[in-house]
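A student in our group prepared the protein record below, which I am reviewing. What it holds is a sequence and that sequence's fold in token form. My question to you is simply how this chain folds and whether the tokens agree. Do not assume that whoever made the record got everything right. I have pasted the whole thing underneath without changing anything:
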Amino acid sequence: PQGSEEAKAFVHGFLKRSMPRMKDEAIQEMLNRKAVVLEHYPQKKTKQKRKKTKGFTAKQRRELRLFEIEPEQQRYAIFLPLHELWKQYIRDLCHGLKPDTQPHMIQSKLLKADLHGAIVTVTKSKCPSYVGITGIILREFKHVFKIITKEDKLKVVPKLNNVFSLEIDGFISYIYGSKFLLRASERSAKKFKLKGTIDL
């Protein structure tokens, strides 16, 4: 068995190792009060910053041709199921297209809806060669629609100076391209004016 002096020396040494930041006087004062709280100083771990995975830039996407449709895939029949999905999407969006549904309600929904898969027809245009083009919208950009026609031709039709008609379950809606110069993601947050001057 250790003597009292040895025990004191052991306790003092143990406390000195356990609390290296405290001075001897402070340790002795704690012993005199017979209240000892052992402190622990864990080593701070440096957190490694996670590198954010960056996606492709627009230039890289163009170079890789990620969204290009191969010529053998440019067939109208391939995209008819997409059109059927779009019609179901619009029906759900408008809570069912019933005969007593208010047309302005459908119009307001279509203005903000995703049009990929919709069948549109160019009804008016300042360029006569665009009039009559009908097809399924494959991609919508800020200034143009990419449309696949029944003749299996991929057409790029500008929105500016063109009026498009869109029909679903007997409801016909008109899109004035000059007022529609927005990306699909931007349209969902835009507030459209119901009244105003309309021009090609």
Observations:
- Helices lie at 4-18, 24-33, 58-64, 80-93, 103-112, 184-187.
